[in-house]
């Protein structure tokens, strides 16, 4: 979101996720029966059908009622029926989103369970021990001394243990990914219980929930390639055009547009001034962000993205290697870190242009046979950024504008409410980069 106040020293650049990413153990994954998730998905689908039938019944009543009932009581009843209609519409869509998300959880845990089953089968065949945390131990062997086969036996134990560990690591880390992404999506859906009216903001939130549920199946099935919706944006300044504009509002818009065109430095720089002009254009059209420029101008953002890739790289490699060894074919798996919060405090222009934003690093992990027959892995990635340009008037943020004096975030947000400017989504992605870690 846009902001007028200056970055505070020591302000953190990373926001905590709403859902914690927990580790998964072998017993936990063994107990996570994929069919249970599928049954839950079917139950939510049944609820969605029931909500649809209720919605259709309420809609029919609202169409017939004005023909047979008039007066204040009838008007009050119609108002309540319209709310019920909205509530049933939300219930249907969110139930469908939950069903899709749980079905995706079934696909994800089934893939992780497949890798774990292979690891446990190999453990039995090679007489090894798979620990609860996925590590592999080789029992003490009474290898004959001075036996030429001893070195080969020790090497075979080492190779078998490494192969088992690859599959176990793939299974446990992927199960943790499934758990994290599903929990985040269900957290989004849970917020919908507070919705009762399908205004523009609620429609957008519900649409993202259903979209996230649809994409989740592709993300967690091992195919990847889909970008999950970003976290829900804050409320901004309310409904566009919901209040009458005043002469002061019109004066503020004219002055802000004038200085954004002629004095970009007053807004922090050229990027902040461009975003301001787009806001004042009152179109609400999405705006592209040059993410490569963001990463170049804010090395701390690039470093943060690098840390996220580094934290996931070993798990991603293990998962791709598990599929490579399972299928015997070259593998390209698409992974993502999930949406992370970032505050652009290190660059005044970007700080005033976007303030706090979210980014998701999407990687393609490729495994191919090398010249010696051993698998080789390569990771390429893109950083995706998403943000909502709006104004938060609750924190008393201000700036000095020539000839106007102090202007607050609340003043700027009122231009949206008065229909003189319009909030908008903005985002983009970086060029494809190769991970060298």
Which helices and strands occur, and which strands form pairs?
Blueprint: H1 26-31, H2 34-68, H3 72-126, E1 129-130, E2 136-137, H4 148-190, H5 200-220, H6 247-262, H7 270-280, E3 287-288, H8 291-297, H9 299-327, E4 331-336, E5 340-343, H10 348-354, E6 356-369, E7 375-389, E8 398-401, E9 405-408, H11 409-417, E10 424-429, E11 433-434
Parallel strand pairs: 3-10
Antiparallel strand pairs: 1-2, 4-6, 5-6, 6-7, 7-10, 7-11, 8-9
Profile the largest sheet.
7 strands, mixed
Rounded radius of gyration (Å)? 27 Å
Distance between the termini: 32 Å
Count of discrete alpha- or pi-helical segments spanning 4 or more residues: 11
Unreliably modeled segments: 9-16
Estimate what percentage of residues fall within beta strands.
5-15%
Number of strands: 11
Shape: flat
Q: What oligomeric state do these chains adopt?
A: single chain
Mean pLDDT: 88
Helical fraction: 40-55%
Output the helix-strand order: HHHEEHHHHEHHEEHEEEEHEE
* Structural class by SSE content: alpha+beta
